[in-house]
Amino acid sequence: MVAAYFFDNDDSVDFRQPHNSGKDVSLDHLAKLGVIYKHLPSQEEVDSLAEQRGYKNRDIMNLNAARFDNNEQLMVEKMKVFYKEHIHEDEEIRYCMDGDGYFDIKDSVLDRWIRVRLDRYDLIIVPAGIFHRFAVTTNNYIKALRLFKDEPKWQAINKPEADQNPIRKSYLATLQTA
Ligand SMILES: CSCCC(=O)C(=O)O
Ligand SMILES: [Fe+2]
Which segment of the chain is annotated as a signal peptide (predicted)? Predict the structure, then answer.
């Protein structure tokens, strides 16, 4: 079941560890940042949400150590692409079909990372322009359905370019009016 809490900022510890500061974050607080969480135990519910929100395409991302010949070091190296804070110019919609993972959300009002743990049948919608990152847990496995409004493309925009991105600026403007 989902868990959300402020990240403990202890970068000396493997990023796949929980990093729980002990300070929980409510789903309402996440919603104020534009992040939507849902628990959808059936595929029908996922399909209905996709219909409502106009997600026309999807694919499945399977991240596990076996994909890297059980070479955990290689997997960690590859995972760092997702763990580098980034934005997208579209919503990021991920549904955990199996396994688990951490979606870290940057609260730009408090300037703090919020860690959201997704477990099976959890879905997260990360708004366009918000800084975020992803890590598997120490289970080293997630099977995630990726939903897209248009073409299934994954384009991460990192700092410093992201800070000047118009979608980023629009996102920050929504926080001012919230
Ligand atoms: C398991 S989905 C990987 C994370 C991701 O797609 C992203 O952060 O853009
Ligand atoms: Fe992303």
Answer: none
For a mutational test of ligand 1's pocket, the pick from 94, 133, 153, i.e. the residue with the most ligand atoms closer than 8 A to its C-beta, is: 94
What was the pLDDT predicted at 166?
A: 98
| CB 117 within 8 Å of CB 29 | no
- Report helix, strand or coil for 122: strand
- 77 annotated as a binding-site residue: no
Give percent helix, percent strand, percent coil of the chain, each to the nearest 5.
Answer: 30, 35, 35
> What's the domain count of the chain?
1
Task: Determine if residue 132 is labeled as part of a ligand binding site.
Answer: yes
Whole-prediction pTM: 0.95
Range of the structural domain that residue 96 is part of = 3-177
Say whether the ipTM exceeds 0.90: yes
